[in-house]
Specification:
This protein is mainly α and 78 residues long. Helices cover 50% and strands 9% of the residues. Strands 1-2 form a two-stranded antiparallel ribbon. A hairpin with a 5-residue loop joins strand 1 (25-27) and strand 2. The relative contact order is 0.12. The mean pLDDT is 87.
Length: 78
């Protein structure tokens, strides 16, 4: 039985994101990672499961520009 179209599309998307050399994360409104590709796991030296349990700000130094960018993206209407 073939995979559901949305399941197949999700698998293809994950394959593409994991092929990227750059860390890619999806951070929700509470600051927790809902997705982290393999490069993000390597960069932060934490599994996607661990990244999903802890607020993103715990993985970067206080005052990091990443936190500022995340704040801008969260506050943006775009």
């Amino acid at each position: 039985m073939p995979a559901e179209p949305s399941t197949a599309r999700h698998s293809e998307t994950e394959l593409i994101l994991n092929a990227l050399r750059h860390p890619v994360m999806l951070i929700d409104e509470s600051g927790v990672a809902r997705y982290a590709n393999a490069s993000a796991e390597s960069f932060f030296q934490a599994s996607a499961a661990k990244l999903a349990r802890v607020e993103f700000s715990n993985f970067v130094p206080f005052g990091s520009p990443l936190l500022t960018l995340l704040g801008y993206a969260r506050d943006s209407d775009h």
